[in-house]
From TrEMBL:
This is Glucose-6-phosphate 1-dehydrogenase. One of its GO terms (molecular function) is NADP binding. The gene is zwf. Its EC number is 1.1.1.49. NADP(+) binds at R62, K170. It catalyses: D-glucose 6-phosphate + NADP(+) = 6-phospho-D-glucono-1,5-lactone + NADPH + H(+). It comes from Phytomonospora endophytica. Belongs to the glucose-6-phosphate dehydrogenase family. It comes from the Bacteria. Substrate binds at H200, K204, E238, D257, K360. Pfam families: G6PD_C, G6PD_N. GO terms for cellular component: cytosol.
Amino acid sequence: MTVPNPLRDPQDRRLPRIPEPCALVIFGVTGDLARKKLIPAVYDLANRGLLPAAFVILGFARRDWGDGDFEDLAREAAKKHARTPWREEVWTRLAGNFKFVGGSFDDNDAFDTLTSTLDDLRASHAIQGNAAFYFSIPPGAFPLVLKQLERTGAADNTVSGGWRRVVVEKPFGNDLDSARELDDLVDDVFTGEDVYRIDHYLGKETVQNILALRFANAMFEPVWNSNYVDSVQITMAEDVGIGSRAGFYDTAGAARDVLQNHLLQLLALTAMEEPVGYSPDEIRTEKLKVLRAITLPGDLENNAVRGQYAEGWVAGEKVDGYLSEENIPAGSTTETYAAVKLGIQNRRWAGVPFYVRTGKRLPRRVTEIAVMFKKAPHLPFHAYDTETLGHNQLVIRVQPDEGVTVKFGSKVPGTGMELRDISMDFLYGEAFTESSPEAYERLIRDVLIGDKTLFPDAAEVEASWAVIDPLEAFWAGRKPHPYAAGSWGPAAADEMLSRDGRTWRRA
Ligand SMILES: NC(=O)C1=CN([C@@H]2O[C@H](COP(=O)(O)OP(=O)(O)OC[C@H]3O[C@@H](n4cnc5c(N)ncnc54)[C@H](OP(=O)(O)O)[C@@H]3O)[C@@H](O)[C@H]2O)C=CC1
Ligand SMILES: O=C1O[C@H](COP(=O)(O)O)[C@@H](O)[C@H](O)[C@H]1O
């Protein structure tokens, strides 16, 4: 046992901390994310007893609503999407704490009303001046809402007498330049330490477990490098299409929507060095070194593939192609699939390709990180006995079958010496009685208690755009490869790996 160093591990994380009295202000409270994730997460926190006794949830949207209308929407959303069981008594306690302000982002009166509502709550000692502003709104509206919060003084924690924090959804910017502009603006309006750039993948239990797996054990780290690893495959596949998000999605595409953030964060956690301690700064320092060391191959023509789904069949159901989705402009060349080979220029990973792919309308929803090991340098068996042996694999199954799989060769029972690959599985559902909190539940609580460990900082976001920008520039003006909905993406993505003598793992 050593004396704890408060810089390396600033808090005892075994005990759940209850936030101070506060308000959570959600902009875009009628939207998809707020209804499916944020409001249910607030209910789950209440259900687990992790909200302060004095807590107000304040919704803002373009509706002529009273507090009761908002409460009705929230109840329906929580009942439908919460992870924890429905308990009427929990809802009853939460229910009196809903407030609603209606208006558009360019409506000064609405923001004045919002600010005076927060002032009244502080004056009545309901929230002690503490408030977190959650931007669950189209990314293009971030600057306007920031300016409104600046104009009204609502962002100013010296005036409010408590803390004022802001949670900015992804994508943070549209490229490196716009991310920098947004960084400047958000740091002007709030102080840097009060800005939470959210990437909900970091709130997933299985993603946090990457560091535990790698650094709490002795057996993985010695082989976690280019001496033993042949390649790494990171897959984020979705069976859904773009749903009702055409307006946002068509301006973004798969690379900006998830590659720039979720997938590069998964890559950073997989490839980073051991942090000095489990504190926000130490972890970000190591992730940032990886993000800055990422390179795109010179030959992008053969190593970066973008695709767009055409009509097809998913889970036995005929579905439209992207171009027939509601509100998608005719002839759109936005990609719904992206696959790219990345390198990491450091001693640990030089020469190891990281193949990263994501797509909508693929056969099933699965996110995983597969570390593919090199083949054994020599086998003392006959070649015909080992025909079915592949690479050893360690697969971190992020979702939906949360767990870890290790794949290795084993003797087939019998008198001969035939070898075959087998799998050893760790399943969360079998190993733990505790249920995983939903990512947003974890992250909202972190915002309210002021823990930034799981939030990327400006430098990480900028380093990620520096990877994506040249890719987008290369793709500009090129048509994506069509792929049938329900397939694993364009043939060009398979060819990309086969040129390297590899195949995609069947996820
Ligand atoms: N949906 C998802 O699965 C995920 C979304 N995100 C991010 O979350 C954010 C929100 O996404 P999502 O919920 O899907 O978006 P939606 O389009 O479903 O919702 C947007 C919300 O913003 C409101 N809004 C838009 N314009 C204005 C305006 N001028 N004035 C007032 N309110 C306005 C809408 O209100 P109104 O009802 O009046 O139109 C609505 O409540 C985005 O940044 C997205 O990238 C991140 C991860 C996942
Ligand atoms: O951020 C986003 O993530 C969702 C997928 O999230 P998951 O937790 O269900 O894996 C994706 O559908 C959406 O396009 C993207 O904006």
